[in-house]
Amino acid sequence: MASINTQKACTCLSSSSSSSMSQWKHEVFLSFYGEDTRKNFTDHLYATLIQNGINVYRDNENLEQGKPIALGLMKAIEESKNAIIVLSKNYAFSKWCLNELVKILECMKEKGLKVWPIFYHVNPFDVGNQRESFEKAFLKHEEDRKVHKEQIQEWRTALKEVSKIRGRHLVDSPESEVIKEITKSIFDELNRELSNDSEHLVGINSHVKEMMNLFSTMSDDVHFIGIWGMPGIGKTTLAYAIYGRICHQFEASCFIRDGREIVEKDGLVNLQKQLLFKTLKVKEENIWDYHDGIKIIKARLSNKKVLIVIDDVDKVEQQQALARSCNWFGLGSKIIITSKDKHLLIRHHRDTIVHRANGLDNDEALELFSWTVFSQTYPKKDFEDLSNGFVKYAKGLPLALKVLGSSLIARPRKVWEDYLHQLEEIPEGEILDKLEGD
């Protein structure tokens, strides 16, 4: 068993949102001229993005320059959320690169593709006005009878447009610093979108990054990942965040919330039907009992690369009914299970990687409490001392912070004082037991 311990946990102000997950296949498309940067700057950039768990499309190293741009490459641009364009000295000599650039800007306007230009030892002014090496490149294109004037003008316009987009101008700056900066910017952008989906996330970035780093090192085998921690610690929120970041990388995916409650209310068969419906988008009417469900899951998903998140598992039968064995799923599949029972997570899959979710640190706890009560990152002036009192009492437990904070919204200071005094007289264990019951 592999185990990862974290120092903080993550949570959101409201994780009840069922907003749609990203439909992009790639988080970043890399456009660059291979002979200039493939084996140095671009290679280092690509490696750093991957290490940070960012899904990157980079063209095949053996693709021949000069041939008409492949339809597959055009499709990859259309399916990307971001595009990094490394504009180097000889970029404009490549018809391939120029066609990529035109397509990228088209998708920026029509599909919301976010563009990140890097002016690699070239001046943005020279790029936009086709001076220096860019001028030489266009003189060459104009001599080529196979290149139409309309296409040349389209390329010139694209270079003019990209030169006006704010980007990184790399001249004397250390390349490693620029790579770190752009990687962080894209990582933060991806998580900012996730935050918008879930209203307000606190303490999420470091945990998402850690998990994404872990995923980037995994083989193409089927992997089981457990998220373990006490009730209310933020297991579901972390699983939801990870799901939102990587679901588009799979043929099929599903997030099953509150697995324990579903089983208690409707039984294991209903849980199996929900799994099949969410992954295949087809209702399965031929499941009459638990064993039928197992056979159908194996038959339907054994050749598919799937992402399955099963939230709040408290009995081994739930895991056996949905994901007992690696051979139930196609290569590259990931099964994420959240539970308060660590032993349950590793009982049938000893190679399960277990991520422990711990409480928020004091700053994060205060931020979450403040968002809950005041809709801002820090308490109002007259409530700073009392807010810190509630934060201290909650001991970093996100659910406790939200429950306590919700009861204090728009209440006068006297009510806060009385409530905190009452809490101090109640044993901590009783409060946690109540929250677990909720």
Automatic annotation (TrEMBL):
* UniProt-listed Gene3D superfamilies: Helical domain of apoptotic protease-activating factors, P-loop containing nucleotide triphosphate hydrolases, Toll/interleukin-1 receptor homology (TIR) domain
Q: Does the keyword NAD apply?
A: yes
Provide the GO biological process annotations.
defense response; signal transduction
GO molecular function terms attached to this record: ADP binding
Keywords tagged on the record? NAD
Residue ranges annotated for the TIR domain, each copy included: 24-190
Do you know which SMART domains this protein is assigned to? TIR (SM00255)
Q: What InterPro entries does the entry give?
A: Apaf_helical, Disease_R_plants, NB-ARC, P-loop_NTPase, TIR_dom, Toll_tir_struct_dom_sf
User: What's this protein's name?
Assistant: TIR domain-containing protein
Which organism is this entry from?
Quercus rubra (Northern red oak)
Taxonomic lineage of this organism? Answer: Eukaryota, Viridiplantae, Streptophyta, Embryophyta, Tracheophyta
